[in-house]
Write a structure and sequence with these properties.
Length: 265
């Protein structure tokens, strides 16, 4: 679990984050959403230590990341996995070598053990057989799956994803969402996803933080969105006419929306 307490962040005289308090839960897909410029990317950077907050605390299972020494922060970062918007794979390394990279850097495994672990991760994201290919030889969706495999190679307790569906078609985005959701549950990871993808919000939003002009405007689950009376949230979520029509139908007919991931069938 990651807990944020009264977090502020300013750049010179501009206050970007204002008194953010939030809890990101274990075993759930925690989503940060908001308009461009709302502060959600700055919040993510404060969580992982790329920026230092002006004021406040970031607690990793009770450990205050902000107050840690440089060495303590390095140690904690080994418990984190990162998935970047562009996948950020090394073009000169094969798929297998890309997944092995954090193992080469931070594990005490021998070569055979590192290769075995990397192949296990590739198997988990359904990419066995692609080990010898280079990033330029595989699709964008496959590159994102390689990035996920690399991110989980060190068995992280915390997984951070910056726009994981960026540049992907809707069908491939759904595959990535389902993969992140299942991995989160399987390994009881605290997963935090920064996203603009409304399909992700409605599909895997088990804990959603909506940031508006640097403040936490709303927090809830995807099932609460359809009936929300928060105008700033609904204006953001239902920006398209299609989504507005969906919401009207749901409210009129009292439909209980469940994503296939959460179905008992």
């Amino acid at each position: 679990m990651i807990e944020v307490k009264h977090l502020y962040k300013s750049f010179e005289d501009k206050e970007v984050l204002k008194d953010i308090c939030a809890v990101f839960e274990n075993g759930k897909t925690n989503l940060i959403i908001g308009q461009s410029g709302s502060g959600k990317t700055v919040l993510m950077k404060n969580l992982v230590g790329l920026l230092d907050p002006t004021q406040g605390e970031v607690l990793y299972d009770g450990r205050n990341f902000v107050a840690m020494s440089k060495q303590e922060k390095i140690h904690l970062r080994r418990e984190m996995g990162m998935i970047f918007q562009s996948a950020a794979l090394f073009d000169s390394l094969t798929v297998l070598e890309n997944v092995m990279f954090p193992l080469d850097m931070f594990s005490s495994m021998n070569l055979r053990e590192r290769q075995k672990r990397a192949k296990e991760c590739l198997d988990r994201v359904n990419l066995i057989g692609a080990e010898g290919k280079y990033p330029g030889e595989i699709s964008g969706g496959m590159q994102k799956r390689v990035a996920i495999a690399r991110a989980i190679a060190l068995n992280p307790q915390y997984l951070f994803c910056d726009e994981p569906n960026y540049g992907l078609d809707p069908k491939t985005s759904l595959v990535i969402d389902e993969l992140l959701h299942s991995i989160t549950q399987e390994f009881n990871i605290t997963t935090i996803i920064n996203t603009h993808d409304m399909n992700s919000v409605m599909g895997i939003g088990e804990n959603i933080i909506f940031i508006y002009e640097g403040r936490k405007e709303w927090q809830g689950v995807s099932a609460d969105i359809m009936g929300s009376t928060n105008k700033r949230l609904t204006d953001f979520i239902f920006a398209s006419d299609l989504l507005k029509e969906m919401r009207e139908v749901v409210n009129e007919q009292h439909i209980d929306i469940h994503h296939p991931l959460h179905s008992d069938d």
